[in-house]
Write a structure and sequence with these properties.
The structure is a single chain. The chain has helices spanning 9-39, 45-58, 65-74, 153-165, 181-184, 186-194, 206-209, 211-223, 233-249, 261-268, and strands spanning 114-124, 127-136, 142-148, 174-177, 198-201, 229-230. Strand 1 (114-124) and strand 2 form a beta hairpin. Strands 1, 2, 3, 4, 5 and 6 form a six-stranded mixed sheet that branches. It has ten helices and six strands. By secondary structure, it is α/β, with parallel strands linked by helices. The termini are far apart. It is globular and about 60 Å long.
Length: 269
């Protein structure tokens, strides 16, 4: 005859205490995630788990990534994917000189060996702004940027000057970009060469051969709100400055061992 085994009073209260503790733990996790999402609204679950792990340990909470994911799911805090937009900012049908791809298959291990450049747009109710970015291939840091009203080469040149101002003496990165007129024009190329940088460009598949730059555009738009529409250009300029600062100094990067780009850039330097 099968006998039903009952639960002891001690076990009952121990389990109830554990359930209550899990509830309190989940409340703290949710509060910490909401606080961080106010600063970085599109930061993903893995990076949040890494960033908050130390604070949770201080509270005596050991929470694995799967449980962390489940807490966020139950609280409705998982991110919904956003549709990608790829406007055309590259005009490569021109008669200006182009350069070969010097970084294809090249192994790089230190910051300021390769900079990648790209140009994207920011939408406002008052018209488009165009954001020129230069990103270090190893540290992923945005080393230079400029947001302006036109697609003219002046914006890309301003981003380049911004990056060169912080370049350590003796460093000569390869400058890699697509074949857009902004990067091929004589004024821009002359500035690159005059400061000892080599010129490299995509040759066939522009997106694939400049994947890091494309990825940077996506991160700033999807995680830092630059993919939306701003009411004013002044507001957009402020948002761009804040996005670049947060990305460089606060966003842990999986490929960098969860260091921020600024930490990786400074550590290697």
């Amino acid at each position: 005859m099968c006998r039903k085994v009952g639960i002891t009073r001690q076990n009952y209260y121990a389990r109830r205490k554990a359930r209550q503790r899990r509830g309190v733990d989940a409340e703290l996790v949710v509060a910490l995630v909401i606080a961080e999402r106010k600063i970085q609204p599109r930061l993903g679950t893995r990076k949040l788990h890494f960033m908050l792990k130390g604070e949770l340990v201080k509270e005596g909470i050991l929470l694995g990534r799967d449980r962390f994911l489940e807490v966020l799911r139950q609280a409705g805090l998982l991110l919904e994917p956003k549709p990608a937009e790829y406007p055309c900012t590259t005009h490569s049908q021109h008669s200006l000189p182009v350069f070969r791809n010097r970084i294809k298959g090249l192994a790089v291990s230190q910051p300021n060996e390769v900079w990648v450049g790209d140009l994207t747009y920011v939408r406002t109710a008052m018209g488009f702004l165009f954001l020129a970015l230069l990103t270090d291939k190893v540290s992923r840091k945005v080393v230079g940027y400029h947001c302006g009203d036109t697609l003219a080469a002046g914006g890309c040149l301003a981003a380049l000057k911004n990056a060169l101002a912080e370049l350590p003496a003796g460093a000569t990165p390869i400058h890699h970009s697509d074949q857009g007129t902004q990067y091929c024009c004589h004024e821009y190329v002359n500035w690159v060469v005059a400061h000892g940088l080599s010129v490299s460009m995509t040759e066939t598949d522009h997106c694939a051969e400049n994947a890091l730059a494309e990825r940077m555009n996506g991160i700033l738009k999807s995680e830092y709100g630059l993919g939306g529409e701003f009411k004013t250009k002044a507001g957009a300029h402020l948002a761009v400055a804040q996005a670049v600062h947060l990305y460089n100094n606060r966003r842990p990067h999986t490929a960098l061992g969860y260091r921020t780009p600024q930490e990786a850039h400074s550590l290697a330097a």
